[in-house]
């Protein structure tokens, strides 16, 4: 197996995730796109762990999974709070901080 | 090696198709279910990369916990379960060239750097013991920091979401 086939898969997933973050208005869907990006990074880390024969990448991947879980927890808490206050989670309607 | 290659391409095409559906579908619940396909495919790729423990953690944490959180978030913020028309914003057209330009840039860089370099043929599976030696040895301080982040996230989520 080539190193590049895994790295290209990760690159494609990353770009799809970036497109999702740009194109989506719904906050929950944007968080899902961020999950796509985080997974592509994990694939990269594990590919390089195998290429270099060191378990460091596995540790980083596990830490990323834990941070992603924390991020989703807090993110959805924020989304719930926004929904309770504004009755919408459309990101285009949250413009109070615009100058 | 050939069997692994076939497995890789099947899983990879499945993941890319499902990821495209995640960012294009008009139904939030369907997007969450397509995301399950992508995450399970990623777990399969981790096994191909000789990372059993990370693959199992992926299934437990992502497919088990994070997806439940997503479905909870969907159910709690929307009364309507079904197709909706206003999920994309006006920058949708801008996202396609941005994604493609990033993909071309990364593709050129990867082709330049790794060309046709191959992964080692006889990969030994990284055992759970090795990973735990890493976590509780040189990476102990990040592990503590991570525990603190998780604690703060739990407390923060409760404070944010409770009614008062």
Explain the overall architecture.
The complex is a heterodimer of chains A (about 100) and B (about 160). Chain A is mainly alpha-helical. Helices cover about 80% and strands about 0% of the residues of chain A. In chain A, helix 2 (about 25-50) packs antiparallel against helix 3 (about 55-85). The longest helix of chain A is centred in the C-terminal third of the chain and has 31 residues, at about 55-85. The termini of chain A are far apart. The mean pLDDT of chain A is about 90. With about 160 residues, chain B is an all-alpha fold. Chain B has two domains: about 1-85, NADH-ubiquinone/plastoquinone oxidoreductase chain 6, subunit NuoJ (Four Helix Bundle (Hemerythrin (Met), subunit A), Up-down Bundle); about 125-164. Chain B has helices at about 1-25, 30-50, 50-75, 90-115, 130-135, 140-160. In chain B, helix 1 packs antiparallel against helix 2 (about 30-50) and helix 2 runs antiparallel to helix 3 (about 50-75). The relative contact order of chain B is 0.07. Classes of the chains: A mainly alpha (about 100), B mainly alpha (about 160). At the A-B interface, helix 1, helix 2 and helix 3 of A face helix 1, helix 2, helix 3, helix 4 and helix 5 of B.
Q: What is the topological layout?
A:
The complex is a heterodimer of chains A (99) and B (164).
Chain A: H1 3-23, H2 27-52, H3 56-86
Chain B: H1 2-24, H2 28-48, H3 52-77, H4 92-114, H5 128-135, H6 140-161
Helix pairs in contact in B: 1-2, 2-3
């Amino acid at each position: 197996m080539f190193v590049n086939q895994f790295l290209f898969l990760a690159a494609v997933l990353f770009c799809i995730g970036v497109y999702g973050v740009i194109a989506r208005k719904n906050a929950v869907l944007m968080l899902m796109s961020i999950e796509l990006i985080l997974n592509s990074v994990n694939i990269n880390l594990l590919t390089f762990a195998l290429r270099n024969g060191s378990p460091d990448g596995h540790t980083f991947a596990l830490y990323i999974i834990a941070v992603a879980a924390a991020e989703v927890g807090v993110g959805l808490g924020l989304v719930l709070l926004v929904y309770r206050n504004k009755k919408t989670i459309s990101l285009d309607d949250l413009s109070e901080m615009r100058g | 090696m050939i069997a692994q290659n076939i497995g890789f391409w099947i899983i990879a095409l499945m993941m890319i198709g499902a990821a495209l559906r995640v960012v294009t579908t008009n139904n939030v619940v369907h997007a969450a279910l397509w995301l399950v396909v992508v995450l399970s495919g990623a777990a399969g790729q981790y096994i191909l990369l000789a990372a059993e423990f990370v693959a199992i953690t992926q299934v437990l944490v992502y497919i088990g916990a994070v997806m439940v959180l997503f479905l909870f978030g969907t159910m709690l913020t929307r009364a309507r379960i079904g197709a909706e028309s206003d999920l994309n914003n006006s920058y949708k057209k801008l996202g396609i060239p941005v994604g493609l330009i990033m993909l071309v840039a990364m593709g050129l860089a990867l082709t330049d750097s790794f060309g046709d370099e191959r992964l080692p043929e006889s990969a030994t599976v990284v055992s759970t013991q090795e990973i735990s030696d890493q976590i509780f040895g040189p990476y102990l301080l990040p592990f503590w920091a991570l525990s603190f982040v998780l604690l703060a996230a739990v407390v923060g989520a409760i404070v944010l979401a409770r009614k008062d």
